[in-house]
Amino acid sequence: MYMEEFSIDSSVHSRIIGSRGRNVVKIMDMFKVFIRFPRPSDPDPDLVVIQGAEDDVLDAKDHLLNLEEEYLRIKNLNKFLINLK
């Protein structure tokens, strides 16, 4: 069992998790890993933990970081477009 801890901007956690956890369950099934997002009471609101076989964990981590980048890009684009109005 391998574990990886890393940061993902907490502002995109809900988009990654999805409604009722549907998105994150699909990701966990796809990569055969367990993913834990922080609770509101946790000291680091950005800390995500993935557990599973090492290759699966690293692949899932890459996938989550790519999703984070995409969601942050969309978020920043939306802010930019709002400021143009």
Tell me what you see in this structure.
- With 85 residues, this protein is an alpha+beta fold.
- The chain has one domain (2-84): 2-Layer Sandwich (Ribosomal Protein S8, Chain: A, domain 1), CATH 3.30.1370.
- 54% of the residues lie in helices and 18% in strands.
- It is built from three helices and three strands.
- The chain has helices at 13-17, 22-31, 54-84, and strands at 2-7, 34-36, 47-52.
- The protein has a three-stranded antiparallel sheet, with helices on one face.
- The longest helix has 31 residues, at 54-84.
- The protein is elongated.
- The model has no long low-confidence stretch (mean pLDDT 93).
- GO terms for molecular function: RNA binding.
- Keywords: RNA-binding.
- It holds the Pfam family KH_1.
- Residues 2-69 form the K Homology domain.
- This is Vigilin.
Write a compact overview of the structure shown.
The protein is an alpha+beta fold. The chain has helices spanning 13-17, 22-31, 54-84; strands spanning 2-7, 34-36, 47-52. It is built from three helices and three strands; from the N terminus they run E-H-H-E-E-H.
